[in-house]
C-alpha cells in the first residue's frame, strides 16, 4: 500500500512539474512589437502565418555554380555567407518565420558555421562535415541532422543535378527527423532590435544603391546587391545572375546587408579555414540605400553591428551577413 501511494505521489509530482515547465515556457515566449504590430523575432515583420515560438533551423546551403539557383533560400530570415574552401562561399541559412517545403542543395558543415548556428539555438542541418565540425557536433554543441546518416530517407538526391550538388531536405522531413531524435522544435527566440518606420525614414549615411563584394577576381564569386527605391529592398546577384528560388523563381529580397571583416587562416592541407568569430572589428551596414561604417561584435553568439558601444538596429525584413577577410579588398560601391 505504501509503495502504491508513493508511486501515485511521484506521478502527481511529475505531472505538476511538467505543467509548471510548460507554463514557464509559455511565459518566456514574449511577443515583440514594432510600430504596434506583433512581429517575428528575426525579421521584425508582422505575423500573418507561422509560429512565434518556432525553433530556428540552420541549413548549410551550397553556393557552387552547379548548385545555383538554390531552393528555399529566399525564405531565410538571416543568411551568413562565408568562404569554405578556395574562393567558394557557402551559406548558413537561418529559417524561423518560414520553413520552406524544399531546401537545398545541402552541403557539409564547417566548425564556424556550427558556432554561428548556436547563436540562434538552431537545429543544424548538414550533409557531411569537416573533422573539426564533426568533433563539435558529436560533442553535443548543437543538435543536428546529417545527410550522411539519412541519405535516401530524410534527405534525397535530385535527378537534375550531380553530387555533391544534389542533396535536398524538406520542412516535413526536418520535422520527422526532429521527432525521431526527440529534438524540441519550439523555443523562445531572442529577437533582434528593429527600427520603427519613422527611424527608417530618418536613417543617415552615404548613398550606396549598388555595391559588390568580391570573394575572387572572377565574377562567378562576386556577390552584388542593388537597392530598389520603390520596393525599399535589395536584390542579390551572383555571377551577374539574380539570386532567385529554383522552384518559384521568386527573387531574394533583403532589408539589411552587413559586411564584416574577420581574420581567416588555413587549418589543413585541404584548404579548410578557421575564422575568428569573436574578436570584433570593421563592418559596413547597408540599409535603405545607405551605407554606414560600423563595428561588429559577437553578442551571445550572434554577429551584430555596433556603433559607439550600442547595437545598431536592423530595418524590418531579411538580413544577409557577408563575412570577408578584408573589407577594403572586397567591398566597392558601383555607379
Automatic annotation (TrEMBL):
InterPro entries: DUF3048_C, DUF3048_N, YerB-like_sf
Pfam families noted in UniProt: DUF3048 (PF11258), DUF3048_C (PF17479)
Protein known as: DUF3048 domain-containing protein
Residues of the DUF3048 domain: 42-182, 213-321
Lineage: Bacteria, Bacillati, Bacillota, Bacilli, Bacillales
Amino acid at each position: 500500500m505504501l509503495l502504491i501511494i508513493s508511486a501515485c505521489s511521484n506521478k502527481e509530482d511529475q505531472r505538476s512539474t511538467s505543467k509548471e515547465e510548460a507554463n514557464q515556457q509559455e511565459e518566456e515566449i514574449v511577443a515583440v512589437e514594432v510600430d504596434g504590430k506583433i512581429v517575428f523575432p528575426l525579421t521584425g515583420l508582422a505575423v500573418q502565418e507561422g509560429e512565434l515560438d518556432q525553433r530556428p533551423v540552420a541549413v548549410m546551403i551550397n553556393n557552387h555554380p552547379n548548385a545555383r539557383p538554390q531552393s528555399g533560400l529566399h525564405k531565410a530570415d538571416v543568411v551568413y555567407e562565408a568562404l569554405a574552401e578556395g574562393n567558394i562561399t557557402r551559406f548558413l541559412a537561418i529559417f524561423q518565420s518560414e520553413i520552406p517545403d524544399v531546401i537545398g542543395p545541402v552541403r557539409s558543415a564547417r566548425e564556424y558555421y556550427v558556432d554561428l548556428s548556436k547563436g540562434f539555438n538552431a537545429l543544424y542541418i548538414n550533409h557531411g562535415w569537416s573533422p573539426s565540425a564533426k568533433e563539435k557536433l558529436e560533442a553535443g554543441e548543437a543538435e543536428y541532422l546529417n545527410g550522411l546518416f539519412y541519405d535516401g530517407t530524410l534527405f534525397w538526391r535530385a535527378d537534375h543535378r550531380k553530387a555533391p550538388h544534389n542533396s535536398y531536405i524538406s520542412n516535413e522531413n526536418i520535422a520527422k527527423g526532429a521527432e525521431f531524435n526527440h529534438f524540441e522544435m519550439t523555443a523562445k527566440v531572442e529577437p533582434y532590435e528593429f527600427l520603427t518606420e519613422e527611424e527608417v525614414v530618418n536613417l543617415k549615411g552615404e548613398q550606396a544603391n549598388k555595391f559588390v563584394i568580391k570573394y575572387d577576381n572572377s565574377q562567378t564569386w562576386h556577390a552584388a546587391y542593388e537597392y530598389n527605391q520603390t520596393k525599399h529592398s535589395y536584390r542579390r546577384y551572383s555571377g551577374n545572375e539574380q539570386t532567385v528560388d529554383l522552384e518559384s523563381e521568386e527573387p531574394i529580397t533583403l532589408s539589411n546587408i552587413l559586411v564584416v571583416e574577420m581574420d581567416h587562416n588555413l587549418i589543413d592541407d585541404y584548404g579548410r579555414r578557421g575564422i575568428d568569430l569573436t574578436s570584433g572589428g570593421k563592418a559596413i551596414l547597408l540599409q535603405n540605400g545607405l551605407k554606414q561604417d560600423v563595428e561588429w561584435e559577437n553578442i551571445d553568439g550572434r554577429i551584430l553591428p555596433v556603433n559607439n558601444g550600442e547595437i545598431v538596429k536592423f530595418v524590418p525584413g531579411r538580413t544577409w551577413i557577408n563575412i570577408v577577410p578584408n573589407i577594403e579588398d572586397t567591398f566597392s560601391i558601383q555607379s
